[in-house]
Design a protein that fits this description.
- Helix 4 (160-168) packs antiparallel against helix 5 (175-196).
- The protein has helices at 8-18, 34-40, 85-96, 160-168, 175-196; strands at 23-29, 46-53, 59-64, 73-79, 103-115, 125-135, 149-155.
- By secondary structure, it is α/β, with parallel strands linked by helices.
- The chain has a seven-stranded mixed β-sheet, sandwiched between helices.
Length: 200
Amino acid sequence: MNRPLLAPSELEILIARFGPQPQHHATVVGDGWWEEVRQSLNRRRGEVLLVIQRPDGQLLVHTKAFYPPDAYRLLTGGIGWEETAWAAMHREMAEETGLPVHSAAWWGLITYTLYPSEGALDQGLPFVSFVFHIRTEGEPRAADRSEQIAAFRWIPPEALPEIAHRLEQLDRPWRGWGAFRAIGHRFVWEHHRERLIVGG
């Protein structure tokens, strides 16, 4: 794959609009999950991580029909190769929640190198998550049934570290996926906890 996951102009536009935001790089060993990542990069260059917050401060998480029990997480959605992250955020909000975007802000960037196993550190693949904070109201309802969203839940921001911990504790074949998904939750809590907590 020779196409860049990040367009420099896209970052410049986001920084000009929202100011410099935190950036983080992480490495993850796929541990049974890497092949899915490799195939997904044929149709998307990265994802948007949606930090969806309602007026009382609660954050939206979800689980899917095929996830392990109680594996809730923040919503994400793919960014097409010909799509901007900003456009993907609005599209995914409509498809996965049906909720209005009252306001949205870019909150940072997470880049990854994903490896198939500890013994294959020469086969890393890049991936990227654009983090967006979205203010909304109402109750979510998924429009895209192919996503297989089984349930939504509203949580206090303080629950993000516990969600990350649960994801990190998943057994195989979900271990690599859980480690990958936990990173975004820890990123949001570490860098934006004061902005998430009502009155903070």
